[in-house]
């Protein structure tokens, strides 16, 4: 399955880690619908690592769901998820074991793809731990892609090799619909900031059919769960979400959606930010202005319908004023044009600005605009 827009959903890893089970998946499915997340576009419910028994079935060689966590089996869980109008995602690994030491799919790719198809999976996250030294990474992703294609079900391949082996050069050719390009996120500002900055120059190979995945969001986690690491303020989470939207990255929620707070819910369903993220043109953002060793930057992204998304970041630790001369966007003063700005966080009309925009930004804050070129 080749996605036309960055995939959106929820993944169990960031909050729940190994503490996953039938009941919490069903509750999550209910919450995704009741809280309007599905309606906003979050359609995949993905079960990450730690869902299976430690050993394959001795007779069939199949991976089997953990009998205590999923006593009714995985098809029952998948059926429930589907009954809510959501899509169902599973997890495996290109190596002999998964990262948390459960059976991996190495040399079992076709059997496992068939098993996932039998479960009714629509998505497979495919990790990279415990890969035999001699095995060629790109070949393992080609193999699982072939296995999924011949499984009889349309299953989106979500590759997860953390940016190894120059993944940007070849991953699109394997048939993956998204690919993790970085190491694991943890719930603090520096983690998401550095992940974002590491991929700014790699977004050119992200787009229609295959999207650069900069990891599941920590937005709204508030230092609870599996990747807790100091947590973030609401202002920082707002910045994280804006960065992911502007990068055109897959939006996989990592917080507990059953207890999601109102501020987070409003943020992750913000129609302006989602419009930027999901824009059909899939053009990559580019840097139009840079200060303070790349920590205070202005990025722009051309959208459909002659709109431009603008992101002004202060990822440094002090408050500042940030300057954005329109000349660097391709709008010289001589053109006699200005930008009509809409604040993407609030939807408020921010007026028509000409020549430059110069705004105060608190430490770790950002501003996001939808802009149209107008006569001035
Ligand atoms: C790796 C991945 C994570 C998560 C864990 C599960 O570290 O990068 O996203 O899937 O494995 O063990």
Overview of the structural elements:
This protein is an alpha/beta fold and 376 residues long. The chain has helices at residues 13-16, 22-34, 37-40, 74-83, 109-119, 137-149, 167-174, 189-199, 234-246, 262-268, 271-277, and strands spanning 8-11, 44-46, 87-93, 123-127, 156-160, 178-180, 211-213, 251-253, 286-291, 296-302, 308-313, 320-325, 337-343, 349-354, 356-361, 366-375. It has an eight-stranded parallel beta sheet with strand order 7-6-5-4-3-2-1-8. The protein has a six-stranded antiparallel beta sheet with strand order 9-10-11-16-13-14, covered by helices on one side. α8 (189-199) links the parallel β6 (178-180) and β7 (211-213). The longest helix has 13 residues, at 22-34. The N and C termini lie far apart (46 Å). The mean pLDDT is 98. Bound molecules: alpha-D-galactopyranose. Alpha-D-galactopyranose is lined by residues 13, 48-49, 98-100, 127, 160, 162, 184.
User: Any idea of the CATH topology of the largest domain?
Assistant: TIM Barrel
Q: What compounds sit in this structure? A: alpha-D-galactopyranose
CATH class of the largest domain: Alpha Beta
**Roughly how many Å apart are the termini?**
46 Å
Oligomeric state, counting identical vs distinct chains: single chain
- Percent helix among the residues? 25-40%
The CATH architecture name of the largest domain reads: Alpha-Beta Barrel
Computed over alpha carbons, the radius of gyration is: 21 Å
């Amino acid at each position: 399955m080749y996605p036309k827009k960055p995939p959106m959903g929820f993944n169990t890893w960031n909050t729940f880690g190994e503490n996953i089970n039938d009941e919490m998946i069903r509750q999550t499915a209910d919450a995704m619908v009741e809280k309007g997340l599905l309606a906003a576009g979050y359609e995949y419910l993905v079960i990450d690592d730690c869902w299976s028994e430690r050993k394959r079935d001795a007779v069939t060689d199949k991976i089997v769901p953990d009998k205590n966590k999923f006593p009714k089996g995985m098809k029952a869980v998948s059926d429930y998820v589907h009954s809510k109008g959501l899509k169902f995602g599973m997890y495996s690994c290109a190596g002999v074991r998964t990262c948390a030491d459960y059976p991996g799919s190495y040399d079992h790719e076709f059997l496992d793809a068939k098993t996932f198809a039998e479960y009714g999976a629509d998505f497979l996250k495919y990790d990279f731990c415990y890969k035999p030294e001699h095995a060629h990474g790109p070949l393992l992703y080609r193999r699982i892609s072939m296995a999924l294609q011949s499984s009889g079900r349309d299953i989106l391949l979500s590759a997860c090799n953390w940016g190894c082996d120059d993944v940007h050069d070849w991953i699109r050719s394997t048939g993956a619909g998204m690919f993790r390009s970085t190491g694991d996120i943890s719930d603090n500002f520096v983690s998401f900031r550095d992940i974002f900055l590491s991929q700014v120059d790699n977004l050119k190979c992200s787009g229609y059919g295959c999207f650069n995945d900069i990891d599941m969001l920590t937005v709204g986690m508030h230092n609870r769960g599996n990747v807790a690491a100091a947590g973030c303020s609401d202002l920082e989470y707002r910045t994280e979400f804006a960065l992911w939207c502007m990068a055109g990255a897959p939006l996989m929620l990592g917080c507990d959606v059953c207890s999601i707070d109102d501020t987070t819910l409003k943020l992750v369903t913000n129609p302006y930010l989602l419009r930027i993220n999901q824009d059909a043109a899939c053009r990559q953002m580019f840097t139009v202005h840079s200060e303070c060793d790349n920590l205070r930057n202005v990025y722009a992204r051309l959208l459909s319908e002659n709109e431009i998304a603008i992101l002004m970041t202060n990822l440094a630790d002090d408050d500042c004023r940030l300057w954005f001369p329109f000349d660097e966007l391709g709008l010289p003063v001589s053109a006699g044009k200005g930008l009509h700005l809409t604040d993407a966080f609030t939807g408020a009309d921010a007026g028509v600005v000409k020549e430059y925009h110069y705004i105060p930004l608190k430490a770790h804050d950002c501003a996001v605009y939808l802009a149209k070129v107008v006569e001035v």
